[in-house]
């Protein structure tokens, strides 16, 4: 009887350990999503924002958003998240109003990734 209890306890312990391992591996993979929009490490965000504010072009908005997402994801700067939300929502509004064709601004692959990032950071 005592051996049965030990076997059951050991089985439960193994199940808990495996569950925790799966949880942490999944979380680790999620945290390491690759950033494929480019390297914006030497980019002046103020210059990109100014360029967008002046031109109001879809292309400059996409470039500005890409740099913001880089700063948030790769450099870990959470202070830019409200800007991603604001300008990302502006991009989505333009698309809904048919003022921006998201498929023609940049490559489909790059635009899909940008959309994924700006949605993740709260754009609606």
**What portion of residues belong to β-strands?**
under 5%
Quick check: average pLDDT? 84
Name the structural class: mainly alpha
Unreliable stretches, pLDDT < 50, 5 or more residues?
none
Relative helix content: over 70%
Total strands: 0
* SSE arrangement, N to C: HHHHHH
The number of helices is: 6
- Kindly report how far apart the N and C termini lie: 60 Å
Describe this protein's structure.
By secondary structure, the protein is an all-alpha fold. It is built from 6 helices and no strands. It has helices spanning 2-31, 45-55, 58-73, 81-96, 102-105, 108-120. The longest helix has 30 residues, at 2-31. It is elongated. The termini are far apart.
Furnish the topology, listing elements before pairings.
Elements: H1 2-31, H2 45-55, H3 58-73, H4 81-96, H5 102-105, H6 108-120
Short description:
This protein is an all-alpha fold and 124 residues long. 73% of the residues lie in helices and 0% in strands.
Features:
single chain; 124 residues; mainly alpha
């Amino acid at each position: 009887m005592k051996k049965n209890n030990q076997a059951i306890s050991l089985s439960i312990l193994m199940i808990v350990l495996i569950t925790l391992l799966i949880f942490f591996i999944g979380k680790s993979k999620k945290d390491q999503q690759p950033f494929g929009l480019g390297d914006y490490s030497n980019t002046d965000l103020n210059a990109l924002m100014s360029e967008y504010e002046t031109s109001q072009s879809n292309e400059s908005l996409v470039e500005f958003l890409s740099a913001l997402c880089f700063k948030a994801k790769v450099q870990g700067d959470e202070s830019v998240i409200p800007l991603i939300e604001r300008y990302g929502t502006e991009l989505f509004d333009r698309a809904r109003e048919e003022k921006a064709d998201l498929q023609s601004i940049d490559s489909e692959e790059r635009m899909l990734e940008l959309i994924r990032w700006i949605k993740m950071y709260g754009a609606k």
